[in-house]
Amino acid sequence: MSNWDNDPKVAESVCEAAEKFGFFQLVNHGVPLEVLDGVKDAPIVSLGCQQRRRGSTPKSFPLPTTSESQVLCTKLMTALMEKLNVKEIDETKESLLMGSKRINLNYYPRCPNPQLTVGVGRHSDVSSLTFLLQDEIGGLYVRVNEGKGEEDGWVHVPPIEGSLVINVGDALQILSNGRYKSVEHCVIASGSKNRISIPIFVNPKPNDVIGPLPELIAAGEKPKYKNILYSDYVKHFFRKAHDGKKTVAFAEISS
Ligand SMILES: O=C(O)CCC(=O)C(=O)O
Ligand SMILES: [Fe+2]
C-alpha cells in the first residue's frame, strides 16, 4: 500500500476485494506498528485479561484512534466512492461513511476444546468499515461463496505481522446499494493460547439516515434497501443473537 499514490492498481485491488470478498488485509498501511503494539500492550488490555472469565463475552473499552488510521480510512473511503462514481465526500457523506468510531477489545481465553466454547458467533458488522488488529494466534474465519452450494464455506484469515484486516460492514453495503459486501465472519478460540483482537468500527453517526447513496439511484439503480435511522439499525443488531441471521435483511426492500 506504500505506493498507493503512484499506483492506481492499489485502489483498484481494494475496490475489487470489497466487491468480491468484503474482506482484505493491508500491509504497509501507514499506521505505525508501534501504535498497534501500544494498543495491544496497553495496561487496560492486561487488566481486561485478568478480569475475563473463561468463555465469557468479549468486553468493550473506549480507546483513542490515531490520526494515521484516520488518513488511511479517508483514503480507502475515497477510493471506494470513486469506484461508485461518487466524486466528492462532502460533510454529509463524511458523516455517513465515517461519522463515528468505536474501538473494542476482544479477549478469547484459550479453550482445550474450542468446539465447546463461543468465540464470536457468525455475524456481519454494522459498521461501514472495520479495521482489525489481531495478534499472532489466529481464529478469525470468513464466509466465502455464500449460496454457491459446495463452494460455500469458511476461510481462515491468517495473521500477518503488522497487517490490518479490513472488512466492509452492513452500513457500507446499504450505502453502496449492495455493491460492497458485508460478509459473515466468526471467531473460534484457540485450544492452547489466549488471543486478543482489537476491532476499530468506523460507522455512520447514530442520527444519520442510511440508504443507497443518491448518486447511485440518480444513475438508474433500483434501491435494494430502505432508508433507515442508523441507531435503529444498530438497536436491531444488538437485539438479536449472533446466529448468522442477516441484520441487513432488516433494511432490505422485499421484491
Ligand atoms: O476477533 C476477531 O478477529 C473478530 C472480532 C469481530 O468480528 C468483531 O468484534 O466484530
Ligand atoms: Fe465482526
UniProtKB/TrEMBL annotation:
Span of the signal peptide: none
Annotated keywords: Iron, Metal-binding, Oxidoreductase
Domain Fe2OG dioxygenase: 92-204
GO molecular function annotation: metal ion binding; oxidoreductase activity
Top-level lineage group: Eukaryota
InterPro entries: DIOX_N, IPNS-like_FE2OG_OXY, IPNS-like_sf, Iron_ascorbate_oxido_reductase, Oxoglu/Fe-dep_dioxygenase_dom
Family annotation (Gene3D superfamilies): B-lactam Antibiotic, Isopenicillin N Synthase, Chain (2.60.120.330)
Any single Pfam family the record assigns to this protein: DIOX_N
PROSITE patterns assigned: FE2OG_OXY
Similarity annotation: Belongs to the iron/ascorbate-dependent oxidoreductase family.
Name of the protein in its database record: Fe2OG dioxygenase domain-containing protein
Taxonomic lineage from the root: Eukaryota, Viridiplantae, Streptophyta, Embryophyta, Tracheophyta
